[in-house]
Amino acid sequence: MSLKDDSFPSSTAFDAISASLSSSPSEKKSALKTGNGIYAFTLKSPSGATSSWYIDLKTSGTVGRGLAPEGGKPDVTLVLSDSDFSALISGKANAQKLFMSGKLKVKGDVMKATRMEPILKRAQSQGQSKL
């Protein structure tokens, strides 16, 4: 199932992350151990529209639309523009710099947010993200 949304170009990254998590059982197990949480992303388009995705690294290692899987609650929510997320996932932007400049807002467990970096880098290094 594709998570692509044409009004949010960076949505292809969620397909890449999903593919990365399902590429091998050992990678999924490693991601679940490292992430150990539900990560929500709220992206904003230049028109002001918003869209949400989640990455469940607490129970299932799945990626989907919305803020959490059914019956779940995000441990941390990252709020940023679609273009900043594109830059982040492609390695052109640094999460800490985005946060310090106010372009990335973190709600919930800030320390969990730092655990997301290896997952994003894995998707990027596999060349699956066309951002």
From TrEMBL:
Gene3D superfamilies: SCP2 sterol-binding domain (3.30.1050.10). Residues 20-121 form the SCP2 domain. One of its GO terms (cellular component) is cytosol. PANTHER family: SCP2 STEROL-BINDING DOMAIN-CONTAINING PROTEIN 1, STEROL CARRIER PROTEIN 2 SCP-2 FAMILY PROTEIN. This is Oleate-induced peroxisomal protein-like protein POX18.
